[in-house]
């Protein structure tokens, strides 16, 4: 551990009570995607107090701030945290439980914002330790497609100056606080939403020969589409095709006019992704036609897969090992979940890693659950590591310029 490591870690320890205060405030007042107005104003007030220049209202409710180092350097590194909450009624019993009915920070974005703010506090105090620019991005609407990342990029968040690299972190209830996880290369899947409407001919359930049953046809389509993965996907290419909704408003003695199916496709290859879209369309249309039904198939193309630049991620892992100890830095497996952080990686080298937040002495609660909470000591790791990654990457860039 270097002198800088010790100082950053010490600064984070000193700031931890303030970061817990920030995180709990944000947890009490969560806001849904594209509605993060109070969240934006709260963060802006903190940045004003810290004397950090920033722009509000980017992509609606986002913030972009800049911290300039005092050393010589022309490079830029970006740090990103997402802001939005989920439409979930919280079931925890804490003094910081959500006060907004039906809305909850069940994915840890409150911790992401608090960690980035903590990193900014450290960086603002230590501008003498680096040269160049650290661009800090508070991004809205990660949970709602098309996502805030692509909108922020469209509004120039990756320009003037263009970052040489970007880092993002996400809470991870699978690991205890003090540990982090990384994965080089492909890490998180692309995600597409599938909407299929089967239009048949409704009538009395006792006279099926007079009807075109969309429920039976929809069932056959779901079963047939499983072969897209089991028989058409390369076995070495992780792919998931799942249907979570099947809606048909009939009754015990009524065959309805139509049935609606909704699902998701996730994978890690753009060519195969496009081919799978075509197969879904062909198979579903063919089955409906064979049974005398008509069909609408709409595939809403979502986030691309997350790709962690290998050289950047290896450097980040080395920094994390130095700061936290090798035993606290793990290599992770592929995940079929998705993240709009993926868009940043299509423009600049990116590294998206995991921050251990598991609560000790409590049963595991997954992300997006009504009981989700974190070990707040993780904010110590989240803020110090994020700040150090930015500084060390700037120092690396300066050394190769």
Strand order of the largest sheet: 1-2-4-3-5-16-6-15
Number of strands: 16
Q: What separation lies between the terminal Cα atoms?
A: 26 Å
Please identify, by name, the CATH architecture of the largest domain. 3-Layer(aba) Sandwich
The CATH topology annotation of the largest domain reads as Aminopeptidase
Low-confidence stretches: none
Please explain how this structure is put together.
- The protein is an alpha/beta fold and about 400 residues long.
- The two termini are about 25 Å apart.
- It is built from nine helices and 16 strands.
- The model has no long low-confidence stretch (mean pLDDT about 95).
- It has two domains: about 5-190 and about 305-400, Zn peptidases (Aminopeptidase, 3-Layer(aba) Sandwich), CATH 3.40.630; about 190-300, Alpha-Beta Plaits (2-Layer Sandwich).
- The strands form four sheets. The chain has an eight-stranded mixed sheet, with helices on both faces. A four-stranded antiparallel sheet has the order 10-12-8-13, with helices on one face.
- About 35% of the residues lie in helices and about 25% in strands.
């Amino acid at each position: 551990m270097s002198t800088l490591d010790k100082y950053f870690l010490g600064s984070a320890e000193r700031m931890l009570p303030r970061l817990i205060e920030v995180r709990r405030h944000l947890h009490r007042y969560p806001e849904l995607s594209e509605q993060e107005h109070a969240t934006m104003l709260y963060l802006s007030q903190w940045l004003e107090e810290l004397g950090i220049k920033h722009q509000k209202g980017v992509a609606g409710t986002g913030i972009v701030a800049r911290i300039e180092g005092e050393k010589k350097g022309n490079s830029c590194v970006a740090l990103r945290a997402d802001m939005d909450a989920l439409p979930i009624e919280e079931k925890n019993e804490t003094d910081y439980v959500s006060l907004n009915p039906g809305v909850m920070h069940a994915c840890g974005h409150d911790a992401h914002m608090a960690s980035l703010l903590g990193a900014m506090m450290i960086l603002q105090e230590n501008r003498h330790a680096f040269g160049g620019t650290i661009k800090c991005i508070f991004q809205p609407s990660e949970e709602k497609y098309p996502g805030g990342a692509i909108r922020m990029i469209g509004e120039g968040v990756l320009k003037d100056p263009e970052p040489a690299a970007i880092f993002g972190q996400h809470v991870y209830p699978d690991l205890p606080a003090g540990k982090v996880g990384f994965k080089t290369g492909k890490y998180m899947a692309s995600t597409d939403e599938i909407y299929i409407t089967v239009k048949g001919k409704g009538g009395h359930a006792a006279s099926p020969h007079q009807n075109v049953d969309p429920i039976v046809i929809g069932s056959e389509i779901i079963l047939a589409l499983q072969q897209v993965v089991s028989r058409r996907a390369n076995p070495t290419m992780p792919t998931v095709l799942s249907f979570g909704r099947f809606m048909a408003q009939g009754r015990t003695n009524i065959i309805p006019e139509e049935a609606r199916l909704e699902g998701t496709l996730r994978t890690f290859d753009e060519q195969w992704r496009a081919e799978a879209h075509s197969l879904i369309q062909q198979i579903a249309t063919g089955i409906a036609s064979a049974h005398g039904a008509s069909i609408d198939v709409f595939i809403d193309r979502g986030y691309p897969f997350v790709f962690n630049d290998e050289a950047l991620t290896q450097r980040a892992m080395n920094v994390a090992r130095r700061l936290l100890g090798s035993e606290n830095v793990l290599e992770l497996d592929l995940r079929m979940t998705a993240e709009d952080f993926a868009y940043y990686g299509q423009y600049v080298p990116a590294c998206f890693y995991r921050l251990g937040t598991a609560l000790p002495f409590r049963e595991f609660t997954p992300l997006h659950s009504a009981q989700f909470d974190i070990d707040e000591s993780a904010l110590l790791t989240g803020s110090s590591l994020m700040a150090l990654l930015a500084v060390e990457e700037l120092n690396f860039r300066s050394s190769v310029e």
